[in-house]
Amino acid sequence: MYKPKTLNINNNAYVRTIWRLNSTAIGAVKDTEEEEFRVLDILKKKQRQERKTMKRADVQPDRADRMAPDQNWGNVWPGPRSFHPSSVPLPIRQGYALKGAAPPGKKANAELMKIPNFLHLTPPVIKSQCEALKQFCTEWPKLLNSNEAIEKHYPVEIITSDYCHGSPSIRNPLARIVTLRVKLSSLELDKHARDKFLRLIEYRYDEETDLVTITADRCPMRKQNLDYANYLLTACYHESWAFEEWERDKTEEDMEYYDWDKNASKRSLVQWYYRFQGKDLPEDVDYVGYDISEIPNGEQYKMAVNNLFNEGEKDETLLEYTKAVRKLFGLPDLDVES
Amino acid sequence: MRGIDPAVLLSYSWFCVAAASHLGIEVTKSWALRKAEKERHTLLRAVHIYKKHRVQYEIRTYFRFIHLQRLTESTCDTYLEYIERNLPEGCALKVTKVECQKMSEHLTPPNKD
C-alpha cells in the first residue's frame, strides 16, 4: 500500500480512510489491528433498539395555553365531546391519590375522559341557546293564575308519558297509555244520572278527590287511546241520563244510600209511638207517608239514624244517636265529659 | 330522570332548571331519592359445579325528579326537544305531561222531549 511518508503527522483513522479510498488497492488485505472487529448480528438486536428509542417529532404547545381568558367558550366546545386535556384550560385533577401525592393530572387521564362532561352546556351557552329558542315559545295566559281558574275553564286533564332512552330505537310501548281525569262536579248530572254514572264507571271514581280517572291502553297508538277514553266518557254520560224500563225493578237492597222513610226504623218508631200513647194501630197505616212531626223529637231521631247509616259509625254519629234516643224516651241527657 | 351516576343527574337537572328559568317556565320542585334502586343478581362463580360459591352483581339506578308548571303547548314541545337533545350518556328520561282541555260539547244533558 502506498503511503506518503510526509503525511505521518496524525496517524488517525480519518486520514487513513481518505487515503484508502483514494488508493487503487482498495480491495487489498485490511489491517485488522487498526479496525474494529465486525460483530455478526443474526437477531438484529441493534436495529431493534434503535427503532425502540424513536423520538417523537416536536410536540406543539397546548392550545389551552394560548387561550385568552375572555374568549367565547361556546365556540371552543360547541357540542358534546369527550374530554380533551389540551383544549381545556383548567387544571383539573381526578382519580385516586396515593398517600402524600396529588390526584393524577388531566393529561392522559382515563377517569376524566370516560365520564360525560357538560363543557358544552356552560351558563352563557345555555342562555344564548334559550334566547334563540324563545321565538318558538308562547307565554302562559296571565289570567289563568290560580288552580281554580284553570279547573273552571279547562276541567278535563289528559295525562300522557314520553320516554327518551339511549337505545337504538325511539319507540316505547308504554308511551301509548292515556289517562283522562275529570272532576265529577264539573259534569252536569241529576240525582238518578249521578247514581247510574257511578255504577257504570265502578272503581274508576275516587270519593275523596271527586275525580273520575279513565285509563286507556288497549290500542297501539296514543291517538286511538285518547279517542277511546273520550268515547268512554261520552258513552257513560249519555247512558246515565237515559232511563231504562228495568230500572224500575230497583229494590231497597240496591239503594246506594239509606232512606229512613222507606225502612224498618220508621215502622218501629211509629209502632212504638202508638204503644206509648196507648192507642191501637189502625190497620192500613201508611208507614212511608206518615208525618213524623206528630212525634216529639222524631225529626232528630230520623236525622241521627240517617247519618249513622249513610256516613258510617263514627263517634259523632253515635253520640247524636244516643242523644236523639234519650230525648225521644224522655231520659236525662248524657253528662258532657270535658 | 334515571341514570347510573348521581353526579351526572345532578348536573343535568341543574341544566334543565337553568333552561326553564331562561324560557320563563315555573319550576315547582326538583328532588332526588336518597338511595338508588339496586337490582342484584347472585350467580354461580364457577362454570361447572361449586354451588356454594357464588358471585353477586348489582345494577344501581339513581332517580331525580323535576316538576314544571304553567307551560303552553309550544313552550312545552320546544323545551322538551331541547332537553332531550342534550340528554347525557347513561341517562334516560320519562316525561309525564298533564294537559288541560275544555269540556267537550257532547257532555251536555239531553233535552227533555
Low-confidence stretches of chain A: none
CATH class of chain B: Alpha Beta
CATH class of the largest domain in chain A, named Alpha Beta
Discrete helix count of chain B: 2
Q: What is the N-to-C order of secondary-structure elements of chain B (H for helix, E for strand)?
A: EHEEEHE
Radius of gyration of chain A, taken over Cα atoms and rounded to an integer in Å: 50 Å
Q: Domains counted in the coordinates of chain A: how many?
A: 3
| Helix fraction bin of chain B | 25-40%
- What's the rounded overall pLDDT mean of chain B? 88
Morphology of chain A: rod-shaped
> How many separate helices of chain A?
11
Specify Rg of chain B, calculated over alpha carbons: 23 Å
Name the average pLDDT of chain A.
80
* Unreliable residue stretches of chain B: none
Oligomer: heterodimer
State the secondary-structure class of chain A: alpha+beta
> Main beta sheet of chain A: strand number and arrangement?
4 strands, antiparallel
Number of strands of chain B: 5
Tell me the CATH architecture of chain B.
2-Layer Sandwich
CATH architecture of the largest domain in chain A: 2-Layer Sandwich
Describe the model:
The complex is a heterodimer of chains A (338) and B (113). Chain A has 338 residues and is an alpha+beta fold. Chain A contains 11 helices and 4 strands, in the order ααααααββαββαααα. In chain A, strands 1-2-4-3 form a 4-stranded antiparallel beta sheet. In chain A, strand 3 (205-206) and strand 4 form a beta hairpin. Chain B has a single domain (2-92), classed as 2-Layer Sandwich (Alpha-Beta Plaits). In chain B, strands 1, 2, 3, 4 and 5 form a 5-stranded antiparallel beta sheet that branches. The mean pLDDT of chain B is 88. The chains are: A alpha+beta (338), B alpha+beta (113). At the A-B interface, helix 5, strand 1 and helix 8 of A face helix 1, helix 2 and strand 5 of B.
